[in-house]
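Consider a typical record:
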Amino acid sequence: MSQTCCPSRPERCCPDTKTEIPFVRVPVKAENLPSSVTGEVQSAIGSIPRVTSELTFADRVGMWKARWGISRMDYTVYPGLYAVGDPGPDSEVLVTANYRMTFDLLRRAVSGLDLWVLVLDTKGINVWCAAGKGTFGTDELVRRIESAGLRSVVNHRRIIVPQLGAVGVAAHKVKEITGFRVIYGPVEMTDLKPFFASGRRATPAMRKKQFPLSERAAIAPMELIPAAKWVVAFTFVLATVAGLAGPGSLLDDAARFGLEAFLLLSLAVVSGAILAPLFLPWLPGRAFAIKGAVTGAAVSFMLPLASSFPATRLAAWSLIIVALSSFLAMNFTGSSTYTSLSGVKKEMKEAVPFQAGAGTVGLLLWVVSLIKAGGGA
């Protein structure tokens, strides 16, 4: 008999047959249950926590905080098996990540249905990113099927895996090891109801990921907050340099040029982290770095209208804004729906030297502008 090693239990091998693998259920402790749990559903292996499909005010506040990067990595759900509605042995099983926002949006999307939800331990990362990082993958899926005792909970042998998690899951290995057939669900959670209504068939439209303005705007804050932290730190550095190299007293020059730096660096962040994502489809070029450079250049062209900077300092800030805006827009590749890892690496290899060069030249010109003619040239 051929043998296949089981990733979830490497100390043994699982027969490559329909023989079921014994499981050791890992119960979810009461203190680890999400606040959305409203009761229990009885199954062949005991009680399973039932979660409501309604989102509370606290849930929405939690989502808002996560989008703004506040306690983002702590916004999780304990991995395991949960019930939505009143599922039974013949109910469908959905697989998802333990990122709390993903879990909450999923339970809202299937309101009115009776389903099982198997939550994988993705370390607080959403399905798509976790699939790329390997935490939403074959080994973890096999492990959770076993630890949840799913074979005893349901009569069928199929699970619905999000299409965006397909890159991390080898369906044939899951079938070989556990006996469960992987069916890839639609891209959008909102299509789950029509997906089930059509007998688990996805239309071509359900397989295509859109990236509308509303989604780009929702993701933008995650790029904005980390950049804002760097603005504060960089402003302090520039203020210190201005205090030492400027024409006036240390405190006066630090305050004057520090405020200038803070405002213009913030403008660069808005250009790259907000404007570039919002206008992404309409900006020229395929590379995100180019798109960010375009919005940065557009912002720089307005500087003479809003300031009386001497030529040297105007050129300095124009270079800094374009370089920073380009870099931040390039970071947005990790949030977009139409970039690949190889493409991102290629773009970074080509763009980063130009960004670093432009930024460095801009900083040198800025220091020169402070020194020349008492900081007024």
